[in-house]
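Box 3.1 A note on notation
Throughout this textbook, protein chains are presented in two layers. The first layer is the amino acid sequence; the second is a token string describing backbone geometry. Keep the layers aligned when reading.
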Amino acid sequence: MIRERHDGLRVSLKLGRFFSYSLLLTLVALSLAFLPVKAASDFSLSANPSSMKGPSLSSTITIASQGGFSGDMNVSATVNPLGPSVSLTSVVTRTSVILSLTSGGTASTPLFASSNVGGNFTITIVATGGSISHSIQVSFQATPPPADFTVDCCFSQGHGYMGRVAAGENFTSWGWVTSVNHFSGNVNVTATLNLNLSITIRPSVVNVPDAGTASPDILFHVPVATKPGTYTGTMTATNGSIIHSEQLTLTIDPPPLVCPTCIQDSWSLMTVLSGIVLVSSVATGLVFPRMNKGPRMGWIIENAVLVSSLASIGVMASFGTGLLLVSHGWLGLTCIQFWDYGFPFPWREILSCGTTSLELNWYAFGFDVAFFMAAGYLPIYASTTIWRSRRSNLPIFPLAAGYVAVALTWFALFK
């Protein structure tokens, strides 16, 4: 009896220990289950949006740090099949960039793609940091815009769509029809102006090559009776349902002077003026000394000859610089150009193929003549002062030097 009780007690103790150990192991397992587990160091790669349909694609590639991952990331893009242009920057075309990823942060780069041909394309983005690499795919269903062209018109010297001509003259300009999105074919070009005049376009039908440009000439025939003013119009280019236009502005000046001797150029007036001053200078130097040889009269005659000679030189020098600038303006240039000429003050303007206009500023021409007179007086004064030891009490030298300095400064700043 006692033995049975002893065996029962032993069994109870064993069961108690078993349940105690079981409870302890259960508690340990539960505590381990609720302990935080540190995630592996990695990163994620995503694209937003991951697919697009249209003439171009614009997406954002984002890298996000996981598990404290950080470092420089090499991101590259490839497209299959070949065709579209792909870039991971918005400034220049690049298919590979380096992004700096901070622990727990994100880094992103744009993705751009465009295609001139339609089709389905897959852009593969691969990001590599250290020994870890991930890739994603972006779907691009390219539907390029329809073939098209642009039209532009440009007059001389960067005046854009604005031109200028004298009444009674012909004015030539040109236009450009440029292919867009691989357009090619014949384009009909016309031009209109809110003025009754004839406009000739050569050729009126231009053949625009793929990715190229055609340039027709536009000739405006302005009647001599046209009222001066500014007129507007349009240049239009048409190919089937494709129509584009460009604004035109044409300024009409009064017709050129018509001389009784049929010399239609105002240069003849300057030529005559130069001849008159030259003859008067020579006559003054030859005739006056023989009329009176008194000291005072000799001083008057000497200065009269000097002034007359300087005036003759000034007129011819102004005339010559004008011709020089005109000839320089014509070299290697098209028919229609605008050139202010005259040194140092501009007093003339060419309007078309060298045709002159009424825009002749005689005041500016007179200032140029005075400039050359003053410039010619300076060496004469210097020579008489240095080699002949003669000085003048008149303040002509500082006035002449000051005028030359002012004229050259004006030319340097405003020409």
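The first strand starts at residue 42 and ends at 48. Helices lie at 2-33, 267-291, 295-330, 362-386, 396-414.
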